[in-house]
Amino acid sequence: MPAKGKHRRPKSQRFARSIAVAGTGGAALALPLMGATGAHAATAQSVSEKAVQSLPVTQKAAGKSAEKTAAKKASTVHTYSVRAGDYLSKIADEQNVRGGWKKLYADNRSAIGDDPSLIHPGLKLSIGEKARTSTPKTEKSESAKTEKAESKKSSSNSTAATQSSATTSSSGYTLPVTGATIGTGYRVAGSMWASGYHTGVDFVVPTGTSLKAVAAGTVVSAGWGGAYGNQVVIKLNDGYYAQYAHLSQLSVSAGQTVTEGQQIGLSGATGNVTGPHLHFEIRTTPDYGSDVDPVAYLRSKGVAVG
Predict the structure, then answer these.
(1) CA-to-CA distance for 3 and 129, rounded, in angstroms?
(2) Among 194, 225, 209, 211, which Cα is nearest to 280's?
(3) Per-residue pLDDT for 223 more than 50?
(4) Where are the domains of the chain?
(5) Strand blocks (E) in 129-229
(6) Could you report the per-residue pLDDT of 25-45, keeping only the tens digit for each?
(7) Most buried of 165, 166, 246, 252 (most Cβ within 10 A)?
(8) Domain 65-133 has what CATH class?
(9) What is the fold of 181-300?
(10) Contact indicator for 68, 79 with CB cutoff of 8 Å
(11) Which string of b and e fits 80-110 if b means at least 16 CB within 10 Å?
């Protein structure tokens, strides 16, 4: 029994605390460490997630910016003023119109009208494409269409070359159109002509018939000719000039050299006409009023004219 007035000395709390710390130290120490680790992990994860989430947004913004730039570029349109000797296929080639003359005509049909061959100097044409958004599939489709068109064009050129070769003659001269009959002859009198008579001969052919250079020479004019509609005038190598009038489409341009039998255009009914045909003249100069008998001229070159 303890002495009176004395108290039992309590065991050291330091030891108890030490035991407590020792006993729980792993957990006590682990808890802050785990908390700190968790906090750091949460912070890193949050930053990482934000970065990952923000990446598509950045890419999307960049994509939209690229689309806007492409759309702005695609929507660029400029105006072209038709010059003498121009025709749609020539303009489309020179201006790099995607889709060729048909696309050019479709974009300007309200200005040109129902006949794509009726363009005249001073007419304003819009050149360019409307803005559009293209997917890789669309681009592939457009590429395939372009390749198909080029292939068709190449085939057409090959066919024209073959036809040109087939129509050449040993004399170096040929008919301006194959298998056609003569309608109105040379020097037929009539009040419908400014000169009082017919200055050439009319070959009766439907619109779209291939017209050929009667001999080798140089194109001096190709374009709108007033009452003659779309016309081509070629200076032949012998010094005479051959004129083709009322064409629906021109295949040559001024300054171009041509060979015998080469296609120079397609027949039509442009200008002052009552129906489709080829008005053909032989002249001593490139101008109206210097005509000579075209049938007699061709026969003198060894060409049989029906």
Answers:
(1) 114
(2) 211
(3) yes
(4) 65-133, 181-300
(5) 181-182, 201-204, 210-212, 217-224
(6) 444 444 444 444 444 444 545
(7) 246
(8) alpha beta
(9) Glucose Permease (Domain IIA) (2.70.70)
(10) no
(11) bebeebbbbbbbbeeeebebbbeebbebbee
